[in-house]
Write a structure and sequence with these properties.
By secondary structure, the protein is of the alpha/beta class. The structure holds nicotinamide-adenine-dinucleotide. Nicotinamide-adenine-dinucleotide (NAD) is lined by residues 332-338, 355-357, 361, 412-415, 419, 422-423, 440-442, 463-464, 466.
Amino acid sequence: MSDFKKNTDADGVTTITWDTVGKSMNVMSREAMQDLNALIDDALADDAVKGIIITSGKEGSFAGGMDLNVLASIRDESGDNPAQGLFDFTMAGHHMLRKIERAGMDPKTNKGGKPIAAALPGTALGIGLELPLACHRIFAADNPKAKIGLPEIMVGIFPGAGGTTRLVRKLGAMAASPLLLEGKMNDPKKAKAAGVIDEVVPADELLAKAKEWVLSEPKIVKPWDEKGYKMPGGAPYHPAGFMTFVGASAMVNGKTQGVYPAAKALLSAVYEGALVPFDTALKIEARWFTNVLMNPSSSAMIRSLFINKEALEKGANRPEAPDQKVKKVGIIGAGMMGAGIALVSALAGIQVVLIDSSQEAADKGKSYTTAYMDKGISRKKVTEEKKEAVLGLINATTDYAALEGCDLIVEAVFEDVGVKAEVTAKVQAVTGPDCIFATNTSTLPITELAKASNDPEKFIGIHFFSPVDKMLLVEIIKGKATGPVAVAKALDYVRQIRKTPIVVNDERFFYANRCIIPYINEGIRMVKEGVEPALIENAAKLVGMPLGPLQLVDETSVDLGVKIAKATKAAMGDAYPDGEVDEVLFWMFDQNRLGRKSNAGFYAYDDKGKRQGLWDGLTAQYPVADEQPDLTTVQHRLLFAQVLEAVRALEEGVLEDIREGDVGAILGWGFAPWSGGPFSWLDIIGAPYAAERCDQLTAEFGDRFKTPGLLREMADKGQEFYKRFGQSAKAA
Ligand code: NAD
């Protein structure tokens, strides 16, 4: 069955309807592209056809974009010349879209041709917007929930089906830049104001309006196909254009630190394309697009941020169990985390009981949702009714009896085994035998906490990150006795609240914190050694970490670091390796420099809490050494500190699936997204080089960089993580 259907009415208007079989939103596959191409050929060749409307059979959306698996499979299928395969595929797409755009017009006179309108019922992303951009007029239904844009840059590529070239020709480089470089998405009204689409019409008049236009004998030639076309805002050598391009280049490098190949390639495609006629510009776009697809960073980003992220969200590691959708969740502890968990649960339509030890504290937790909804109202994203509906789902109380009927509990009280045990018993006195009990602990072993439960099989960790409403990752932790139904419940819940799950086993700090703590510690250790703090911070950012290690401590707070250090030392005894780190951390604590929350930390802050620069008292206490390490050494120390921990987590079975290791690292703590995650990074640099580098770092800086056995073995055998851990990418 084809994803595209064609129907011609009595007035000679052909409607081509896109309706991807078996999906709730249209995605472009290779077959679908061929089918569309054939239908366009038919319609253009048919004298009875006066014009064409391209629309969607899905309610509320036009298309979500390209199926990115297609690009990966073309690369893999193209033998020893994958670049040629990708380029040819891209050019075939250009030819089809160009055919739509020219629509049979006489190439010399621009006369004749059939008008083609795009009628978008809603969301139109990626190629779902690039196809309309090739049409002659874009109509969108007035659907405020719809998103219209080109988000390719977020997964490490750029719009390569003509979207880059057409949008720049249509809007000018300056106006197109937030859409192309930041992947900014707009609702239909904003998209019209930005000049991306042409008309916003009531949903029930969408096709009628498009048809009216098609039959109105409109002028269809695109400005760039007319003589004397000038790019809005000026081409690169025009004085205004010059300003734009110089500024954009600086902005891209400032924002991405130069680590994302797609942003640079996009700029090159735009700049070079602006100097030549349209068809040559498309060819240039295709060349740069191929270049990006051939870059290991882009394929790693697509794999982690698109393909594997989606697979995990769809339950790639869900055990066999009946549907475990949550109807009523009890959240114990209405503090920072509990308040956020209540918000995201209620937003998903789940009934919430939010408990704290005083009514005041419970109400305060609920007020977080009120504030969130009010902000949405002020931005016109939320209605009063929606706010009331969401708030109506949250019962803030001190009464444990209200938990009756809950099928999931998420405990988020103080990080204390005794307090958590007491709460567990109190909850289980009310809830039924099928209720799953989850703890949001960030440091305490799940297996230990499960001892307080009357049914450890139904006890699990669901570890959120702060702030809950913004952070996309949820780490699900299986205790020794946790059963499959509890895992399925946690996964179904995470799916309901639209976050991305990873499932890991129960070892100290689970996965995310286990990897991020060594990153922070390595940064602090370097301060102690006399490495210039600015070098540490900038080295981290230049390798794609969103925050330098010192800034990260300031954000999470020095006292939390001290607390974790003390607890870890108590647990590890003489084996504790971080005494040098603690010296700096404890000294900061003694200086009452607790980080952002105290307006004083590794950085200085002004009265309004705005970060100023690194605090000079730091280098007064830990003087900068005369000899400074080179940038790469600092970067390798910071990256290997995290990556080796990820490898150890895999070796020890904390991670069962390297896809989770990569996706979790990027979404959980922002591990250099350009790399695709720690395992992808190791595949990019190669196990032999990684092992060799670890040997050097060990010799110079100590045993924490010792090459893990698994990495050594892979280096000796010349293996890659994604090849070794196979089709399913399972580690086992
Ligand atoms: P918080 O101090 O902001 O909130 C804890 C809440 O629990 C308080 O409102 C407190 O009144 C309430 N509480 C304490 N004892 C209670 C009891 N016996 N019955 C009912 N309510 C009780 O702490 P938080 O930052 O929200 O952290 C909560 C949990 O989440 C901890 O286990 C923490 O380790 C974990 N966690 C925190 C973060 C973070 O970034 N803050 C991230 C992930 C996980």
